[in-house]
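Tokens in:
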């Protein structure tokens, strides 16, 4: 592997065409005045001149096929704003005139938009491959703020026509020691890259578009005695500006208490934590490059999270999308629901009651609209599925239970699988699901079919199904975060047969039962009127 500047200044003058060298040889033998020798040297001179002509042509050919590489450097891509403001405010722009703004080192940053400044400098590495041999070349370019143009590469980089070129460039500011740059405090780092460029004669300009490798965090609201109590993120430390294999790597270190005041901070993607004295907590995970978060730390305590993250209480819409439902987590572990309305212009059809595929859900969602084995979250419909009803036929065991599910309902989560089993059983042993007959399994009919006619499930979901007892139990556990959709008096069928008596009994959730330990109970499959309020179905879906 070669590691040097790939620019060979091919000379048009060769040692072969130095006529003075030939002339010198002639002078050495002039005094001999021997005709034969004289003639021999004349013919030798002619031969040497012919050789020199050949050498010069080859040298000029080599120089002709070596193409200087040039680059077109665009304005950097803007940061992508990723989060809304606190409470029930809508997404807010990040470009704020903040008197407490913390100074930062880099190109001009006006909110999410960035632009080049005078004397900004980029470092460029090119991997140039000819046949099976790869050479690495390094150079720099500097931005002129007056002309708004970039300088030519220093030193220039050239490559033979036909070569394959991979280019990576990086922008950063700091202190150089050899090839290592120790980054300036709060410095932005941006990268651009392009691959598999085939060098032509003449070479076409290569486009480079830069975007930040970092997360932009703008902190506001720390006024009137509000101070940071803790913060944690990975902070870039150094860069090798002439990387061995042409690809820049950034050395980072985990740093605590890096946020001291309102302002803009640039950190490495990953986990970002911030807590303030008013009990407000930010716990961002899986943040990505070139993203921007505006974090308003004023007001009441709560949990701030990026758009796209799913939380209990989020609104779920008819188009399969979701939005913030107001879930907040205080530093003392308390959960609360702020008054955040659904998005205008969308139709809310349910509320998220659990996030992440449950370890106890043995359903496979591959053949649903989810198109993969596991789901992201579970959603409860906004209302129950219809009239009070029976569950199904007493006697037959459909196979919808796990061991000891009456005592440990949280371990029985396979509602989608159970609904499919009940549907298949009703079809194989009768006329399919229907609302009136025992063998039509009415509870499943109302959740799967009747509710779908009222509210269509998104094509990207599992479709509506009758929840297992563990899913009903979780809904009850999270009822305070579900926007008051759970009534105070009603009983609901699950799709779970009671493992203590699978042929005759099904587990139900009774939201009004006392003591609380009796809210999960067993009911005969054919039962309908044992309680004045009856027993109902409530549909859920996964996505």
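Residues out:
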């Amino acid at each position: 592997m070669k590691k040097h500047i790939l620019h060979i200044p091919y000379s048009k003058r060769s040692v072969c065409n130095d006529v003075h060298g030939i002339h010198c040889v002639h002078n050495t033998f002039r005094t001999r005045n021997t005709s034969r020798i004289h003639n021999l040297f004349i013919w030798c001179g002619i031969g040497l001149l012919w050789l020199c002509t050949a050498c010069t042509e080859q040298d000029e050919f080599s120089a002709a096929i070596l193409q200087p590489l040039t680059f077109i450097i665009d304005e950097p891509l803007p940061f992508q704003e990723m989060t809304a403001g606190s409470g029930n405010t809508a997404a807010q722009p990040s470009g704020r005139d903040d008197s407490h703004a913390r100074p930062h080192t880099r190109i001009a940053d006006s909110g999410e938009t960035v632009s080049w400044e005078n004397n900004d400098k980029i470092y460029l590495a090119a991997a140039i491959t000819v046949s099976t041999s790869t050479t690495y070349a390094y150079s720099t370019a500097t931005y002129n703020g007056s002309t708004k143009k970039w300088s030519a590469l220093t030193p220039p980089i050239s490559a033979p026509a036909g070569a394959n070129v991979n280019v990576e460039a990086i922008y950063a500011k700091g202190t150089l020691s050899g090839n290592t740059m120790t980054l300036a405090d709060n410095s932005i780092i941006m990268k651009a890259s392009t691959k598999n460029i085939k060098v032509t004669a003449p070479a076409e300009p290569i486009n480079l578009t830069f975007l930040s490798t970092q997360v932009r965090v703008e902190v506001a609201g720390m006024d009137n005695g509000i101070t940071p109590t803790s913060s944690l993120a990975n902070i870039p430390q150094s860069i090798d500006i002439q990387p061995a294999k042409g690809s820049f790597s950034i050395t980072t270190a985990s740093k605590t208490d890096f946020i001291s005041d309102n302002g803009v901070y640039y950190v490495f993607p990953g986990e970002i934590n911030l807590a303030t004295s008013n009990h407000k907590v930010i716990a961002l995970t899986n943040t990505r490059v070139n993203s921007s978060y505006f974090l308003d730390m004023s007001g009441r305590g709560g949990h701030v999270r990026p758009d796209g993250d799913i939380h209990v209480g989020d609104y779920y819409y008819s188009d399969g999308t979701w939005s913030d439902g107001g879930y907040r987590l205080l530093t003392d572990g308390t959960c609360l629901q702020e008054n955040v309305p659904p998005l205008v212009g969308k139709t809310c059809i349910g509320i998220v009651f659990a996030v992440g595929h449950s370890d106890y859900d043995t359903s496979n969602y591959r053949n649903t609209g989810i198109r993969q084995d596991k789901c992201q979250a579970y959603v409860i419909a906004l209302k129950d599925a219809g009239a009070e009803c029976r569950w199904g036929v007493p006697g037959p065991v459909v196979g919808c239970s796990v061991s000891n599910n009456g005592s440990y309902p949280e371990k029985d989560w396979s509602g989608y699988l159970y609904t499919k089993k009940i549907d298949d059983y009703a079809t194989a042993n009768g006329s399919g699901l229907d609302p009136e007959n025992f063998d039509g399994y009415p509870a499943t009919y109302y959740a799967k079919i009747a509710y779908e006619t009222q509210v269509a499930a998104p094509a990207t979901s599992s479709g509506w199904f009758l929840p297992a007892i563990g899913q009903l139990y979780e809904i009850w556990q999270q009822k305070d975060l579900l926007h008051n959709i759970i009534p105070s008096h009603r009983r609901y069928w699950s799709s779970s047969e009671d493992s203590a008596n699978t042929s005759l009994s099904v587990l139900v959730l009774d939201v009004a039962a006392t003591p609380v330990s009796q809210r999960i109970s067993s009911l005969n499959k054919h039962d309908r009127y044992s309680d004045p309020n009856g027993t109902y179905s409530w549909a859920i879906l996964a996505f």
